[in-house]
Amino acid sequence: MKDYSKYQGIIPAFYACYDARGDISPEGVRALAEHFLKKGVKGLYVGGSSGECIYHSVEERKCILENVMAVAKGKITIIAHVACNNTADSRALAAHAEAQGVDAIAAIPPIYFHLPSYAIAAYWNQISAAAPNTDFIIYNIPQLAGVALTIPLLREMLKNPRVIGVKNSSMPVQDIQMFRDEGAIVFNGPDEQLLSGLAAGAIGGIGGTYGVMPELYMKIRELFLAGQMEKAREVQDTCCRIIYKLCAGKGNMYAVIKAVLREMGAPDCGSVRLPLAPLAEEDGPIVAQCAAMIREAIAKYCG
């Protein structure tokens, strides 16, 4: 049986790092990767939703991964999301990711056109074939992709020996149980339900707000594994309240997160790429409140 221990834990989704002109900052990418290494996370999920991947060119996505790998290769688990809205670019990113030495690649289904299941399976298998020595993870996020992973489609994909599991960002926790029962490993996606996902059998978590407060999510998992469920629920509830505040700004949540990171002394990731809404002037108090809430929670639960 394959050893999946390298995937067991808290894996923040990596944020896009821009310079003052709005271009990808290789220096910023490396600094953020170093920051996460020091936090002790299990790994990084590079090039996904939180990384604003749909607004990047293929070359920009290669640049980001190369600079993450320059810092993190061999030290933590790296999963590279490689899906584009066409097969050729996705295969190019998959081959590049394998050449960089990532642990796994991941892909959402093609968006906009609602393709039949057999076409989605062909798309994923063609991507996987471009990285024949690398694990493949299905990224299920129906609320954004417009199509949900079904059990028949998962069964078809599991015929591919490189397909090991699912990054599940659908909201029903039941999906984790159903996918796991088919023999897939499952990563919990919705940050608001990490504890529930772990209870349903998720091997770990990949999340968009993990990067701004990884200590708290690592604590949730630690408490869960120790059987301290009441305390774990308390920390999860705290994370949820912080998430709601992060979403309360006029700017996009990731613009707020990057500002909170700066407020807390982390590397400057710049803003977000248009058409995502940048931080607004009136978001200042929200940034300060979020930073204070995170500091207070870390002191309370992780000190």
Walkthrough of the structure:
- This protein has helices at 26-39, 58-72, 87-100, 117-129, 142-145, 151-157, 174-181, 194-199, 214-225, 229-246, 253-263, 284-301; strands at residues 10-12, 43-46, 77-81, 104-107, 135-140, 163-168, 185-188, 204-207.
- Helix 8 (194-199) links the parallel strand 7 (185-188) and strand 8.
- Helices cover 46% and strands 12% of the residues.
- The protein is an alpha/beta fold and 303 residues long.
- Helix 9 (214-225) packs antiparallel against helix 10 (229-246) and helix 10 (229-246) packs antiparallel against helix 12 (284-301).
- It has one domain (8-301): Alpha-Beta Barrel (TIM Barrel), CATH 3.20.20.70.
- It has twelve helices and eight strands.
- The termini are far apart.
Order of helices and strands: EHEHEHEHEHHEHEHEHHHH
Low-confidence parts lasting 5 or more residues at pLDDT below 50? none
**CATH T-level fold name:** TIM Barrel
**Outline type:** globular
The level of helicity is 40-55%
Structure annotation, total helices: 12
What's the overall average pLDDT, rounded? 97
Beta strand count: 8
Question: How do the strands of the widest beta sheet line up side by side?
Answer: 1-8-7-6-5-4-3-2
Going by CATH, the architecture would be Alpha-Beta Barrel
Q: Which sheet architecture does the biggest sheet show? A: 8 strands, parallel
**SSE-based structural type:** alpha/beta
